[in-house]
Design goal:
Structural class: mainly alpha
Helix content: 55-70%
Number of helices: 16
Number of strands: 0
Radius of gyration: 22 Å
Distance between the termini: 16 Å
Number of domains: 1
Oligomer: single chain
Order of helices and strands: HHHHHHHHHHHHHHHH
Largest sheet: none
Shape: globular
Strand content: under 5%
Length: 396
């Protein structure tokens, strides 16, 4: 079994680019996102702009990349323990090294991105959303308009206490889930070893469906935003990656045909599920199942890397996909905020679309710089890179 699947790197890169493309697409095609509830979606009919119809099949469902991220995370976190268990009979999960590795992998780039997000939030406010008044740019104005008070809330992962702090950067909610996944993983692993993976999979699926389908009592409605951050709300999706890693390590391969069918069925159900209010509530579960099929398809029976052009390209993006995910929205926010300050003739000549094209260059460039100078230097505990040995994934 290879210690690194370059196709997994490629999937991570694809997922980050997909989410970025989705958020950029929403700037130009607002109201058509399939993430919105059916009652809030603009209808697709003969009056729908052609550019929306042409781009919606790919970009309109880009938020499904989040489910793909969760599946990949569960796979990468569990694979080392699964391989060790099936080789030695024990998982050998040491909590202190595990926690240290997760902290240094997650936190430095995240912490740096908080200040990028605060700068972007400030530029957005000063340029067009809430320009300074007669008093000018005072210290109070800077603190309030930069969302600086939200930096600490996000840095300490306290979104469940103050959900409004998500306004600093709309993608940070997934990190709150990831932290919970990491904290509960040792417990989940022990339960799975004792009870088996299949019963736990069924239980987590039921719990996630209950979160999606059962409305909160009126007495608890005020707490609904806080409950949205509870890890069981998305734990089944992360567990799917664990299941893939366990099957792979146990020598119980899944065929490409079965995984391909699972991928097609999952994504087809996810797309179809956006059509009405009932199925919409669970369509992201279907996307996660489809993502599980995609991951399984790419690693099924693999004993060597697949070096296609697409794998190499997306794999390169996969190296800095975490940084790309963290800063793509703040950089977009800065670009479009600064675009509003251009002279009127330039803006009327189509600078808004030019700003979108500039984002296509600026976002990956900024993300790579964050990766190169902040994220990569703090990757501790990684093995050396012998010439003849493929290293453990940097994100695992």
């Amino acid at each position: 079994m290879p210690t690194r699947f370059r196709s997994i790197d490629a999937l991570r890169g694809f997922a980050a680019l997909w989410v970025f493309a989705y958020h950029l697409w929403n700037v130009f095609c607002p109201g058509y996102s399939r993430q919105a509830s059916p009652s809030d979606m603009l209808p697709l009919n003969a009056e729908t702009p052609l550019e929306v119809l042409a781009t919606l099949p790919l970009f309109g469902f880009g938020y499904a990349g989040i489910g793909l991220f969760f599946v990949l995370s569960g796979f990468c976190i569990h694979l080392p323990q699964a391989k060790r268990f099936h080789r030695t009979g024990r998982d050998g999960l040491e909590l202190r090294p595990f926690a240290s590795r997760r902290f240094w992998r997650l936190y430095p780039a995240f912490f740096a991105s908080l200040f990028v997000a605060a700068l972007a939030y400030f530029l957005m406010n000063i340029c067009w959303r809430r320009p300074p008044g007669e008093a000018g740019i005072t210290l109070d104005y800077i603190v309030e308009s930069s969302g600086f008070g939200w930096v600490g809330i996000n840095a300490l992962f306290l979104l469940a206490i103050q959900p409004k702090a998500l306004g600093l950067n709309g993608v940070y909610w997934t990190l709150w889930y990831e932290v919970q996944f990491y904290l509960t993983y040792p417990i989940l692993l022990k339960i799975c070893r004792r009870c088996g993976f299949a019963p736990i999979a069924g239980l987590l699926l039921v719990v996630e469906l209950l979160f999606a389908l059962v409305p909160a009592p009126e007495s608890l409605e005020s707490l609904r935003p806080n409950f949205e951050w509870f890890f069981l709300r998305r734990y089944f999706e992360w567990f799917l990656g664990m299941w893939l890693a366990e099957r792979l390590a146990a020598g119980q391969p899944f065929t490409k045909r079965n995984m391909g069918l699972l991928a097609v069925a999952g994504f087809a159900a996810g797309v179809a599920g956006t059509g009405n209010a009932v199925s919409w509530a669970i369509h992201e579960v279907a996307f996660a199942i489809g993502s599980c099929g995609v991951v399984g398809f790419l690693i099924a029976g693999t004993v060597r890397e697949v070096e296609s052009l697409a794998v190499r390209g997306f794999g390169w993006c996969g190296d800095f996909s975490y940084s790309l995910y963290l800063v793509h929205m703040p950089i977009m926010r800065m670009v479009f905020a600064l675009e509003t300050r251009l002279p009127t003739p330039i803006r009327e000549a189509g600078s808004f679309h030019g700003a979108g094209l500039f984002c296509v260059v600026a976002v990956p460039t900024g993300a790579w710089l964050l990766y190169r100078f902040v994220e990569k230097p703090y990757m501790v505990g990684l093995p050396a890179k012998p010439a003849a040995v493929v290293p453990t994934p940097a994100y695992c």
